[in-house]
Amino acid sequence: MDSGPILFFDSGVGGLSVVAPTRALLPRAPIVYAADSAGFPYGTRSEAEIAARVPALLGRLVERYRPRLVVIACNTASTIALAAVRAALDVAVVGTVPAIKPAAAMSRSRVIGVLGTAATVRQPYVDDLAARFARDCTVLRYGSAALVEMAEAKLAGDAPDPAALARELDGLFAQAGGAAIDVIVNACTHFPLLEAEMAAVAPAGVRFVDGGPGIARRVAHLTAGQLWPAQAEDVLVFTRLGDAERRLAAALGFARIEAL
Questions:
Q1: Closest to 72 (Cα-Cα) out of 137, 120, 26
Q2: In which residue ranges of the chain is pLDDT below 50?
Q3: What confidence score (pLDDT) does residue 117 get?
């Protein structure tokens, strides 16, 4: 499958924070980026909705684009539907999970913030990661839908409001013990797109970590030795292609825009 692309999937365009480090390691890899704009945002949907929707959509995308590898560049979809997707597809699938392990390695105060969507931060998967890799840490969580919307708006050209960002971060810092947080896990792929702006309003010394670089290394490992086409167009796919999606697509500069 030397012509097969890498398929990235997310509810919106947050997964571009995973595409960027992957592109840095694999500059010739053709990419299909699929955003489930008709289902956006996942963080406010029920587990049952996501568990039914994601495998079905990825089945259609794999049938159309014949990728060599699928990356679910979405923490919410991965923590809920990764196992079902792997069972349904005859292609390797890489998921995205909150970067609690590296956060625990970085933290000196032993208090970590997990910033994700409401659907992600309540998952038992997060409990398991905390128990396995941050047993000696206090792990505080906060789910934000507003940050997802701000990240999408930023890519469309709208600068995020610093006061609004600070209010969302206070969802962590205002919790009991939250003042001691020294590392925040960006447990939604949208949030690294706002990292510079969040760092500017966070207390001094707070660091942010996400899983994008680790996912990129995993993709490079799984495709090691494979051939890439000499030339290929990257494709941006939306499940609903309306005015908002066309505006966003124009800002992102993909060669081809398609609707599923």
A1: 120
A2: none
A3: 93
